[in-house]
Task: inverse folding
């Protein structure tokens, strides 16, 4: 347990910085005024941290300190700035510098703990700043490493070709299929095993199609244009051929007329058949994703993937034979038991297949996963940053360029997920969903619709129910909420 005494309202953000250094530790926040009024209840057993901010008209002074049995240390800094946002950054920065010095640790994304580190870069670009200035700012103000700052600027510059010009009436569509044949041990997504929930698939599809049809009518009234479609999950190809046909026919019929990109995840090679690939091809799918995660069979078994590398290769070759010319592959760095030689084997196998894009994920150990709590597995990791560098080098050699990036909580070594592709194969959906400049209308259990109010720099969200049975039962209620959200933006 860590006690944090703060005299400002950014204790949550400072807590995120503390967790960078101490992991998933419990933090008790104590208001400084309350502490001064009643010192008697206060006893320190573990680590006591202070984050204290004092301001006048033109500057703020921030002090961070730590007291424990082993150490007493303090770090303070004066900032000549006044905005609320900058105050928040200052208290994070000060705590980071204190703990970094004490524990001799630095993190590649510095004090950026959010999912979308490139938003800052885009904001600076919108204000007309040069790339060198942005790189410097990322390093100085957010303590991002030079390597990551340059990467962020490179990707943001590439993304802008797809994000702009912004048309508020152009949207993207997400359709979620929350079923998988079995549950991978690291999974924290909305995924239900077909073994236990297979009997719900038909009713789920009925509700999902109803949600799409009703919303489509409203979208037509507002004259919305669909740019991209993404069918994700779960694993969409865990549907049988007939079910997949029914779903994709409807999606294409409702949203296909103006779209420029139609992705269907075929993530698990054990769900891919010639028939399903034919259906996808016939119904206008332009991009699929076949995800090995690793090409090492012993790891696949360890993480509960229920397929082997041979199946991945066969599925990929079959997809090529059926005419798919835009295939993505996902891999994960930091899987239990994997070392550099395993990664090299995976990249070598992928090189032979030559996918148009490769998405590199860093293992994130989340509470909802089976792997969570198996601390022996987590401790085995240690060279994931080096693996990330090697994949970047591999991508360069293969003429795959980084085109989108995001982060998640609890990622090993506080790294990132990064999408690479051959020039011209950027997945526009991925860019739009991460940079949040385009409204996304989402269907299915746990799907989140986001409306973007560009002029106000505001985002509103409506999340569908996660539980499949309740999603089916209360479909009308969720559709009405979605209508309200769309009405606010488009009426
Ligand atoms: S295939 Fe993906 S969504 Fe399904 S269980 Fe595995 S990680 Fe989760």
Result:
């Amino acid at each position: 347990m860590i006690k944090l005494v703060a005299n400002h309202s950014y204790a949550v953000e400072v807590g995120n910085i503390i967790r960078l250094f101490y992991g998933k530790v419990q933090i008790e926040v104590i208001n400084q005024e309350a502490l001064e009024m009643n010192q008697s209840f206060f006893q320190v057993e573990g680590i006591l941290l202070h984050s204290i901010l004092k301001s006048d008209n033109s500057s703020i002074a921030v002090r961070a300190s730590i007291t424990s049995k082993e150490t007493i240390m303090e770090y303070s800094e004066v900032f000549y700035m006044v905005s609320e946002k900058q105050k928040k950054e200052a208290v994070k920065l000060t705590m980071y510098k204190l703990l970094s010095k004490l524990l001799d640790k630095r993190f590649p994304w510095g004090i950026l703990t959010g999912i979308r580190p490139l938003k800052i870069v885009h904001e600076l670009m919108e204000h007309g700043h040069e790339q060198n200035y942005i790189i410097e700012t990322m390093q100085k103000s957010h303590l991002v490493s030079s390597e990551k700052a340059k990467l962020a600027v490179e990707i943001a510059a590439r993304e802008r070709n797809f994000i702009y010009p912004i048309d508020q009436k152009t949207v993207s569509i997400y359709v979620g299929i929350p079923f998988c044949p079995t549950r991978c041990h690291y999974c924290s997504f909305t995924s239900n095993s077909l073994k236990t929930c297979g009997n719900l698939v038909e009713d789920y599809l009925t509700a999902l199609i109803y949600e799409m049809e009703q919303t489509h009518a409203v979208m037509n009234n507002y004259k919305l244009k669909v740019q991209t479609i993404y069918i994700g999950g779960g694993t969409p190809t865990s549907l049988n051929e007939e079910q997949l046909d029914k779903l994709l026919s409807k999606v294409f019929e409702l949203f296909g007329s103006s779209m420029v990109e139609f992705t269907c995840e075929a993530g698990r090679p054990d769900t891919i058949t010639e028939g399903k690939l034919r259906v996808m091809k016939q119904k206008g799918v332009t991009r699929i994703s076949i995800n090995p995660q690793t090409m090492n069979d012993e790891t696949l078994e360890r993480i509960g993937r229920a397929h082997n590398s041979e199946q991945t290769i066969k599925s990929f070759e079959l997809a090529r034979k059926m005419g798919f010319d835009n295939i993505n592959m996902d891999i994960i760095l930091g899987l239990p038991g994997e070392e550099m030689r395993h990664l090299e084997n995976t990249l070598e196998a992928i090189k032979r297949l030559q996918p148009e894009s490769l998405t590199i994920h860093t293992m994130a150990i989340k509470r909802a996963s089976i792997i969570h709590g198996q601390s022996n597995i987590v401790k085995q990791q240690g060279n994931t940053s080096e693996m990330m560098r090697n994949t970047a080098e591999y991508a360069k050699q293969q003429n795959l360029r980084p085109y989108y990036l995001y982060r998640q909580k609890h990622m090993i070594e506080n790294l990132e997920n990064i999408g690479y592709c051959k020039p011209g194969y950027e997945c526009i959906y991925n860019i739009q969903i991460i940079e949040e400049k385009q409204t996304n209308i989402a269907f299915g259990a746990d799907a989140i619709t986001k409306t973007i109010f560009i002029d106000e720099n505001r985002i509103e969200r409506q999340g569908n129910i996660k539980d499949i049975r309740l999603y089916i039962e209360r479909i009308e209620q969720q559709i009405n909420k979605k209508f309200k959200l769309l009405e606010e933006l488009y009426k």
In short: The pocket of iron/sulfur cluster is lined by residues 180, 183-184, 187, 189, 191, 233-235, 267-268 (CB under 6 Å). Residues 1-105 form a domain with the Maf protein fold (CATH 3.90.950.10). The mean pLDDT is 94. The two ends are 50 Å apart (CA to CA).
